[in-house]
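--- STAGE predict ---
source: upstream dedup step, 1 unique chain passed
mode: sequence only
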Amino acid sequence: MLLSGFASLIKREDISQQRPTLCCEASGGVTESFRIWKKTLSMGVSWCWQTDLYLETRTEIIHVLYEVMIMRWFNTEKDLIAFQKGTGKDQSGRTVRNILAADDNFWEETHNYIQWLFPLKTRSGFNLLAPVVRHPERFETPYMVDVYQRFRLFLDNSTWKEFHNHNQLRITRGLRSLRLFGYQELADEFLKWLDSECDSEDLRKVYNTYWAQ
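--- STAGE serialize ---
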């Protein structure tokens, strides 16, 4: 009953066949398709609360609906493949070349691009709109070496060694993504450099726990 209810909700003629994006105009406006997406999600939430379910069950179903709608309408693996090839754009309308050309301040202060440069098989808890890798064998990654080199250059000029610095999470993602796409030599080179840079007990703990694995 629940599944059929959600299926009918998501497949309604007035909301299907449209694929929203969050590439807003400079004025801050939101696309019409995104408004439709929000309306649909609101309908799903309302539907949940009108059913005779426990609170925990309702909350879980809402989360599932949110996830399904993201996978159905927003950025997909196909979008990620195009981005990695250099022919597509991320959720903010940037190409991989745009990001590579950005300055260190952008790399430090912007937080929704790294999931596109170094994608993984698991969804980001921070950037739910970033696609995940489901079939790594389908990817062409001609910019991965450039991405790695730019990331290394950024780290040389950043404060990534500070305790609990967010760039340490990016390093973890970068290593895993390089390995996922078969760049083992680059991953080994990166790991060797990190090993030489870990000059504190806290950083060494991070290295042994997350990077050397």
